[in-house]
Design a protein that fits this description.
Helix content of chain A: 25-40%
Largest sheet of chain A: 7 strands, antiparallel
CATH architecture of one domain in chain A: 2-Layer Sandwich
Radius of gyration of chain A: 23 Å
CATH class of one domain in chain A: Alpha Beta
Strand content of chain A: 15-25%
Oligomer: homodimer
Structural class of chain A: alpha+beta
Number of strands of chain A: 18
Distance between the termini of chain A: 39 Å
Chain lengths: 545, 545
Amino acid sequence: MNGRPAALPPLRWWGWGERETPVPPGLLDLLRDEAGVSGELSGRPPDLDAVTLPDHPLPAPLSRRLARIVGAANVRRGIEERVRHAAGRSYLDLLALRSGCLPGAPDAVVHPASAAEVALVLRACADAGCAVVPFGGGTSVVGGVAPARGPFAALITLDLERMNALVDVDTTSQTATLQAGMRGPRAETALRARGLTLGHFPQSFEYATVGGFAATRSAGQASTGYGRFDELTRGLRLIAPRTELNVTAFPASAAGPSLLELVLGSEGSFGVITDVTVRVHAAPRFRRYAGWSMPDFDSGTALLRDLAQRRVLPDVARLSDATETRASLAVAAGRAADMARRYLELRGQREPCLLVLGWEGDGATVGARERPAARLLRKHGAISLGAAPGRAWLHGRYDGPYLRDSLLDRGVLAETLETAAEWSHLHTVRAAVSDALQTSLAARGTPPLVGCHVSHVYGDGASLYFTVLAAQETGHEVAQWSAAKRAATGALQSAGGTLTHHHGVGVDHAAWLEGEVGPAGIGALRAVKTQLDPDGIMNPGKLLG
Amino acid sequence: MNGRPAALPPLRWWGWGERETPVPPGLLDLLRDEAGVSGELSGRPPDLDAVTLPDHPLPAPLSRRLARIVGAANVRRGIEERVRHAAGRSYLDLLALRSGCLPGAPDAVVHPASAAEVALVLRACADAGCAVVPFGGGTSVVGGVAPARGPFAALITLDLERMNALVDVDTTSQTATLQAGMRGPRAETALRARGLTLGHFPQSFEYATVGGFAATRSAGQASTGYGRFDELTRGLRLIAPRTELNVTAFPASAAGPSLLELVLGSEGSFGVITDVTVRVHAAPRFRRYAGWSMPDFDSGTALLRDLAQRRVLPDVARLSDATETRASLAVAAGRAADMARRYLELRGQREPCLLVLGWEGDGATVGARERPAARLLRKHGAISLGAAPGRAWLHGRYDGPYLRDSLLDRGVLAETLETAAEWSHLHTVRAAVSDALQTSLAARGTPPLVGCHVSHVYGDGASLYFTVLAAQETGHEVAQWSAAKRAATGALQSAGGTLTHHHGVGVDHAAWLEGEVGPAGIGALRAVKTQLDPDGIMNPGKLLG
C-alpha cells in the first residue's frame, strides 16, 4: 500500500540537510550593525573520521539476542551510525556535533522492521538493563533523542526508519493508519496519491516522522486550519517493554480518561509508538496565500484574536513582529524590499509587522471563508501586500534550519524557542521573554537580535515563536546560550506561558515540567511510567527527568 | 461575581423535573400498535415516607470530624436527603426509586462550601476508610452516583451544590472559571450577563453541573459547533484525597501528556473536580434553526459527512431515522403533521428522516456558513420543511426525561443508549445495536420500538443515539432491560462503536471498559488512581469497576 518513497537523503551528520543556504548579505549586514556579528567564516565541522565518541561496547549477550530479533545487519555499531544518532538538532546539539567531540552516543543503533520486533527488542533490553532511545527523524530541538543512560550501563537507539508504510486508508471516514517511521514527505506523497493530505507541515517536515509528531505533540505551519498533530490523531499503538497499549480510533468517546492524550506527548518515556491513525483531509484543490502589513504587533494580534473568536480563521496565520519583519526585508533585500519599506512608511507604517494568511480548500469554500476576514483586515489597519509575500513564505517555509548551519559557519548563535499563552497574557509573555534574552546576552557583551512571531492561533490565545541571533561568545558558546535559555524559560513560565507549544519537553525542559504541572501532575505521570515501563529503560532523562 | 441564581427546583426525588409532560395521544397510539403497550396508568411511586432504605449510620468520630469541617448543618442524614442521593436517572434507577425499596443510600450527604473544605473532607474519609461519591446534578444515566461502597463500611455522598460561583471571566481570552457545582442554567445566565455563552446544552442541562460535564466528558446539543465539554475545557482543579492537581489553562501545550485529558472522564475516581476553566464564546446575536426531510437515513448521513469533511458544519446537526421521525410525527399529530406526511409521500419520501440544522452567531457569519450547506442539502435530496421543525426542536429540546416519567407511569420501558463510530462503520453499528435490542426484547414477548438519531458530527464519524420503547415485562422489569442493554453493548462494541460517546462509564459500562482500552489501558488508569487515591475511597465501582 506504499506510495512512491520520497527520495530525501538523511540529515547531514553535523547539521540539517544537504541544501547549501548561504546567509543573505542583507541579513549579514543587519547582524553586523545590530548584533556586532563579524560574519567571518569561522570554520566548518571536522571530518567524520576525526569525531571522538566514548567507547561503550554493547554487552555481547544482548547484542546476540538483538541480532536474532532484527538480523545482525540491523544492529549497527559503525562510527557514522553512532554519530548520526548521538544528538538532535538544537543549537547546543549542533555545537557538540561541530566540535567533533561528542560526550555520548548509543552503543548500537537497532533498526526493527515491525511492531513485533520492537516488542521483542524492548523485552530484551528490559531483561538486560539497557536504556532505549526511540528515534524518528532525529530533529528534536530539546534533547529528545539524546543518548542519556540514566542508571544503565548500556544504551541502544531504536531507529524506526524501516517501519515506514502506509498501513491503511479509509477514504469514507477520512482516516489513515501510518507507521511511525514514515517521514513527512513520504506520508504526504502516499496520501496525495489518494487525493488526501495529512496537512501537517512543521519546519522539520522533510525529516521528521509520524511517530515523532505524535510523541512530541507536534504542530505544523497549517495546524491553525487542519489541527495540531494531537488533534489529528485518533488512535495509536504503543509498544511498552512488557505490555502493549492499543488506542482504537473513534471520532470521540466518553469512555473514561483519554489514553490517547496520555501517549501523545509521552516522548518515548512510556514505550514506542509504532502506528498512528490520523484524520486526513481532501487534498486542497485551491490555495490562496497572501501578505499584509500591520501597523504594529498589537493590532496584528488583535486581528488574529478577532478572526479566531469569530471563528473565521484561515488555515495558516503568521504574524511577525517588527524585528522579524525587518530581518525578512533584509533577507529579501533588493529593489522590491526597498519599495515596500518606502510605500509602508508613506502610509504611516514605520515599523511594519508582516502578516501572512493562507486558505486552502475548494474554490467556493475558500472564497466564502476569505470574505469575513477581508472585513476584519480593513478594520485592524492591514495594508495588502498582495500574493508575493505569501508565495515567498510558502517557498521558504522549510529554509530556517538550513540557514542556521550557514549562520553557525559564521560564528552566529542562532536558536529558537516557543510558548503559547492566553490573549490576556500574550504581550506580557512576549515582553518578558524578549527582555530576558536581551538582558542575559547583552550582559555577556553579545546583544542579540530577538524576533518573534505568532504561528498558531486559538480562540483563547496564540503561540509565540522567538528567534535569537547574536555573536557567539568564543570559547563559552554553551554557557552563553544555556544562561539565556534558562532566563527565557523562567521568564515565560512566570509570565503565564506554557513551557512549550510544540517543541516538547525532552531533556532541556524536563527540570521545568513540575513548574507547569505541579507535584501531583508529575506523580501521576510517573505512576503511568512505572506501570508501562517498570524497569525504567525507556528514554531516560527525557520528560520526567 | 455571580449572575442571578437560576430558580430551578431540584430533581423530583423519584424522577425528573416537576413539569408534568403527559404522553401525547399519537405516541400512545403508536406504542399500542407497534409495541403492544397497553398504555394504562399502572401506578405512580409511593410517598417519600414509605421508602425503605438500608440503615447505615455514619461512624460517630467521622461524623464529628466532618461536622467540624463543613458545619453540622451540612452533614445531612434525613431520609429525603439520603433518597435524593441514592440513585442517578437511568431507567433502572427510576425503577428502583419508584419501587420505594432502595438497595443502597449514602450514610450521609456532605455539602462543602469550598475546595479547601473538599480537601479536608476527603482527608477525613481517607483516614476513616469511608467511600466518597462526588455528586453534581445527579443526572447520571450510567450509575455514576450510585452509592456503591466497594470494600468500605461507610459511604458519604459529596454534594457540590454550594460551590456554584462564577469565579472569573476573561473577556479578552474568552475563558471563564466556574465552580463545579454550578448547574447549566446558572452558568449560562451568569455568562450571558457578560455577553457570553458556554454553548453547552445537554438534555440534562437544567439540572446537570459544570463539574459533572467535565467528569463525564459531556456533549451537548450544540457541541458540533461549540465543541464537546472536553474540548471546551482548558484548565481545572482536582482535589484528591491526599494531594491536589491543578491544570493551568493554556490555549495549547506540548509539555508532555495531557493531564487535563486524564482528569476529564475520570468520573470521580481520582478525586473531586472543584473548578473548571472553559472556553466561552460571544453569545450569538442570531440563530437560524430549520428542518429538512431526507429520503432515507443513508442519504442523511452522507449529507452530514459531506458537511463535516468540507468543514461547513452547522452548530447543531440532528438526523432522525425513519422510526424516530415517525414517532416525532405521532407526537406532533394533528393536521400539520398529516399534511407534512402526505406532502413528503407525494415527493417520493415514504419513510422520511427528519433533519434539523442550526446555525448561531452574527448575521453575516451565519449567512456565509449557510450558503455552502444549502448546496449540499440539494445534492443529497433534502426537502425543506422550513423553520417550524427547528423551532419545535428548540422548544422541546429538554423534554425527553420529563416525558419518560409519564411513560413509566403507563408501564412503558423507556431508555436511551448511545455510541459513536467512524463513518465506514456507522451503519453496521446502527444495525447491530438495533437488531440486538429487537431480538432481546422480542424474545421476551415485548417487541420494542427502536429509534435512532445522529446528534454529533465529525469529519471521521458521528454519534448514534438510540431510544428504546417497549411494554414493561411486569415483575421482571430489571432483568428485561438488563438483558437488552447487555446485548446492545456487546453488539456495538463488536461492530466498531465506542462504549459511550457522552453518557460515560459509571457502573453500567465498567465491565466493558477493558474491551475498549485493553488490559494495558486499564493498568495505566489504575496506576493513576492508586497514585492520586491510594486508599481507594473515591467513587468505588465506577469507571474501573
